[in-house]
Amino acid sequence: MAKTQSIVVRDTTVRSFVQNGMDYICITDIARQKNAEDPNGVVGNWMRNRNTLEYLGLWEMLNNPSFNPLEFEGFRNQAGLNAFTLSPSRWIEATCAVGLIALSGRYGGTYAQRDIAFKFASWVSAEFELYLIKEFQRLKEEEQKALGWSAKRELAKINYHIHTDAIKANLVPQEIDPYHKSLIYANEADVLNVALFGMTAKEWRDAHPDDKGNIRDYATINQLICLSNMENLNAVFINEGMPQQERLYKLNQIAIQQMTVLENVESRKILTQ
Fold it and tell me: Does the predicted model carry a pTM greater than 0.70?
């Protein structure tokens, strides 16, 4: 199973995970808002409801080509009868449903695709549903920010290879030993570090002895965008034979100009939200 995440909604911890590109939210956790002692009973009562079954069936028909409509019709015809009961596991097994997932063990509970989970939350409490949607949206926004940072970090790594290739072709003497070769690469990496961050990698480590990774692992998205551009430009400058001191000055001026533009764009976005 995919790694679960948690949000806290009105003092209730609600778990979720992503599977096959769909978000699933634990409705067993949501049910504790109505009955903390027997949340599974709350889910069972919800599934006995004819409106619930019609919604679940329609969702499956729209999203699941393997859904068994004949079994669904049988359940729908019995819905509302006093003797009718239906568990999530039975629904999933009989209809080949994918909108619900029943898990046992450490992460046990019934998980529902987020549209279904929000529908269940509204049945439990309209107020709780609104808080749940708000917190879940906040979680997704944080995920997108993290994804954007990772993408920019990977782009910077790719451009770093372009940068090191230019160093190898123009600055590394032939037959140099590996240790001194690494010094040349590190020295050129620090040209970028000083131009953008105002310090070398060693200076950053000395100032942050308890932090893991390196200075670039703690860069903002805007800094990573700027770094990616600078790596390409420095590769061009190296290929043109520009001296290191001149490259450092040019790259620093470029970093100042680009960061100013990027931060201004970010500020305008915040003001218009």
Answer: no
